[in-house]
Each structure stands twice: as structure tokens, then as C-alpha cells.
């Protein structure tokens, strides 16, 4: 068995299946509502990214096949990220340029990114935040963008549409923003707000 060539074949199959599935741009189905009245993601909904990968591995299965070999992290095509951003921005009423700016600054569009503090995926969801949003796999791009965009919607509502405060809260937490009555005096957070808003303006200009 040539493991290298077999893994390459699996990767090509994953890319083929996930690329086709990305055309279904609607966000995952929901299984109820959370304490905040917002819907909770159904992680078993058809079309979830993790299901696509499992399907790809199963399609390549068979005795002595790579299905028994740990698969390398799948690279998410940019076009799929664009579709997820567009679908979830529309679903939650958030400017897609803002969602994209957060992804760019949080993970650099790397769905497998993990921070030193344990934040995960495209929008770098902390495990506790992900769990509160109903996200069971923060490395699943569909769940991650769904949860991250929903979280941003909540922050925008909490800070009455103030973009700077909502972005600061995404980085430092809403409690810190409320404690200081504005962007917290943390150099990291202040740089983050500046960088996200700069990216946001650039993405908005591109969409005109």
C-alpha cells in the first residue's frame, strides 16, 4: 500500500465533495432555541462540513484503504469560505465584509487554526463560547462561521450597533468593554480593533 498516494487521493476526493457541497449556501439546520432565544445549530444536519469529510473518506473506503489512516486536515477552498460568509451574514443581518474582516484577522482564513489560548477555527471561537452557541465542532467551517456570526450579531445588539465596541468585545469580551465604558486599554485589543476595522473598510470597498 502506498500511503502517500492513497492520502493524496483522499484529499482530492474531499476537495471534490466539499467543493460541490459548498454550493448549498444555507446555514445549518437548527434543533431548538437557546436561553437567548436564538436558534441552536444542529451539528448532525446534512451538509455539515464534517459530514462531507466523512462521506469522502467512506467513498474512498475498502479493505486496506486510507479510511483507516488518520486524514490530514482538509484545506477549505476560498470559494467555500466566501459562500459561508455570505450565507451566514445574510442569515444574521451582519455585514459580510465585517465577518470576512474578523476571519482575516483571527485565523488568516485557516479553518484548522488554534490560538495559544485554545480558540479554534476560522473565527477563533473559544471552547466555552462555542458550546454556548451550540457549536460542537469549531473546526467545522460551517459550524464555526455560523456560530461566530451569530456571536457578532449578539455583540452588535448588546452595544447598540457600535462597530468599534462590538469588535473590541469580540476580542476582549463584552464584560471588559462594559467595565471600561469603551475599547479596553489593552494594546492587543486596541491593535485588533484598528486592524479589523481597516480590513472591514477594504472589503467593503471591494464589494462596491
Explain briefly what this protein structure is.
By secondary structure, the chain is mainly alpha-helical. It has 9 helices and 2 strands, in the order H-E-E-H-H-H-H-H-H-H-H.
SSE topology:
Layout: H1 3-21, E1 30-33, E2 39-41, H2 49-59, H3 78-92, H4 96-106, H5 127-132, H6 141-158, H7 163-172, H8 174-180, H9 187-206
Antiparallel strand pairs: 1-2
Helix pairs in contact: 1-2, 3-6, 4-9, 6-7, 7-8, 7-9
Structure description:
- The protein has 208 residues and is mainly alpha-helical.
- It has one domain (3-206): Lysozyme, CATH 1.10.530.
- 56% of the residues lie in helices and 3% in strands.
- The chain has a two-stranded antiparallel ribbon.
- The chain starts with a helix and ends with a helix.
Biggest β-sheet: strands ordered side by side in the sheet = 1-2
Q: What is the terminal-to-terminal distance?
A: 52 Å
Number of helices: 9
In round numbers, the mean pLDDT is: 80
Amino acid at each position: 500500500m502506498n500511503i502517500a498516494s492513497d492520502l493524496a487521493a483522499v484529499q482530492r476526493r474531499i476537495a471534490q465533495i466539499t467543493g460541490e457541497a459548498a454550493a448549498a449556501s444555507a446555514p445549518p439546520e437548527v434543533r431548538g432555541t437557546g436561553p437567548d432565544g436564538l436558534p441552536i445549530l444542529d451539528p448532525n444536519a446534512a451538509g455539515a462540513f464534517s459530514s462531507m469529510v466523512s462521506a469522502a473518506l467512506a467513498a474512498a473506503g475498502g479493505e486496506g484503504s486510507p479510511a483507516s489512516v488518520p486524514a490530514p486536515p482538509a484545506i477549505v477552498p476560498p470559494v467555500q469560505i466566501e459562500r459561508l460568509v455570505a450565507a451566514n451574514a445574510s442569515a444574521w443581518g451582519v455585514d459580510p465584509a465585517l465577518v470576512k474582516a474578523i476571519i482575516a484577522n483571527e485565523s488568516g482564513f485557516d479553518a484548522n487554526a488554534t490560538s495559544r489560548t485554545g480558540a479554534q477555527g476560522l473565527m477563533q471561537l473559544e471552547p466555552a463560547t462555542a458550546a454556548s452557541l451550540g457549536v460542537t465542532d469549531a473546526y467545522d467551517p460551517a459550524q464555526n462561521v455560523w456560530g461566530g456570526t451569530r456571536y457578532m450579531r449578539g455583540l452588535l445588539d448588546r452595544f447598540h450597533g457600535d462597530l468599534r465596541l462590538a469588535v473590541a468585545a469580540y476580542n476582549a469580551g463584552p464584560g471588559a468593554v462594559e467595565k471600561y465604558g469603551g475599547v479596553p486599554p489593552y494594546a492587543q485589543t486596541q491593535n485588533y480593533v484598528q486592524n479589523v476595522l481597516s480590513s472591514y473598510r477594504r472589503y467593503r470597498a471591494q464589494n462596491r
